[in-house]
Amino acid sequence: MTINQKCKILVIEDEKDVRDLMLLHLKREGYETFQTDNGEEGLHLLEANKYDAVVLDWMLPGVSGLDICKKINQRIPVLMVTARADTSDIVLGLEMGAYDYVTKPFEIPVFLARVRALLRRATIANPTELSQKIQIGNLKVDIEAHRVFCDREEVLLTPSEFKLLTALMQNQGKVLSREKLIELVQGQGVAVVDRAIDTHVFGLRRKLGPCSEVIETIRGVGYRIEI
């Protein structure tokens, strides 16, 4: 059973074989699909219609996937599908607004799992509109009170750990690179540099105990909290 069989997904992919494969399996999952093979038409479709998610190639004729990501500006969850598998390319795609990525060639079950995760992300409000209390499973963060609870037991965090956890939970389902996390965590007496994010995540997981399982490591890129 799919998350939402009424979901509308736009696929922007210029390789016909890859595009047809994606569309075939998305339709089998029950999604309503739309397609184009170039970036310029993709932008026109995005401006004229409403979609729940976009599957987007990086290298497109007309307008690149990166430019489309910037124009969308995270209004719609984007799964970037690309042959550019270097860590620096993946980080750049995420920084430009993609919520997640799949590298070519890809396994169909992995692709569909990423789409389902993307659609779960689409049901979450914009972080600026989120409640001051966020809960995922047995993990609860009260932003205003600056308190964290795991299985109803309070967990004491440092300012850096609290801001890191809050950033991840407010962006649940989205991969956040180390650079993005540094940007979100910095400020108000909190200084985070270079790969110190990894140290903070290690400490955060240790303190969260059984609730730490929600934090997923995306190797070579960063972290996310899965929904």
Main features:
single chain; 227 residues; alpha/beta; Rossmann fold; Arc Repressor Mutant, subunit A; 2 domains; 4-stranded antiparallel beta sheet; 22% strand
Which structural class should the secondary elements be placed in? alpha/beta
CATH homology group of the largest domain: Response regulator
How would you describe the oligomerization state of the chains in this entry? single chain
Q: Helix count, per DSSP?
A: 8
Quick structural overview:
The protein is of the alpha/beta class and 227 residues long. The chain folds into two domains: 8-122, Rossmann fold (3-Layer(aba) Sandwich), CATH 3.40.50; 127-225, Arc Repressor Mutant, subunit A (Orthogonal Bundle), CATH 1.10.10.
